[in-house]
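Subgroup meeting minutes
Present: P.N., E.W., G.H.
Scribe: E.W.

1. P.N. recapped why we're keeping a running log of single-chain structure predictions: easier to compare across weeks, and new members can see raw inputs and outputs side by side.
2. G.H. added today's entry (200 aa).
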Amino acid sequence: MEKRPKYRSIIFFGMPGSGKGTQGAVLGQLPDFMHISMGDIFRKIPRTGKFGREIESYTSQGRMVPDELTVRIFERHLAILEMQELLMPDRHTLLLDGLPRSYAQAERLDNLISVVEIFHLKINDMAMARDRLRARAFRENRLDDMSDEVIHHRLETYYEETFTTLSFYPKELIYDVDAGRCMIDVLCSIVDRLAVIKRV
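Output recorded in log:
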């Protein structure tokens, strides 16, 4: 059997509220890019089904969805997009937002995606990060992000578990971006870097 080529991918990495979804959604409007947000995928799965109930049992407490389930849902989502011919692996570059979120997920995805760059969106001001999460929760009606306890747990989980994910990848793939600035400035930094990558 012919080995399937990996999906060319760019990862947006950062704590909750750092702007991964915002930047991914904007860049995903460009030809040849496909923005995929695991958070959006999870939220669109009906809560009445098996997957939905299982996902909500974790997200409602600010906990991460287990690695095996996350990767399985991601693979199924890609298969559906390909079947609908919305995703063409030989043309599109995936913009991954919220995946991988653990070292184990990075390992599981290694034979599926080819990572060409990681944008590490950094926010050093924790008060700003919490305020952004609260504002997003009200704006997008994300009930699971409105609790101070859940917000604290999400940020804590990021540092204790998710942050170690970066160590799976070569340092030369990681590009730090100051995400504490306004959205347009952050976008400009990312676009400038993408232009460099394209020329290489």
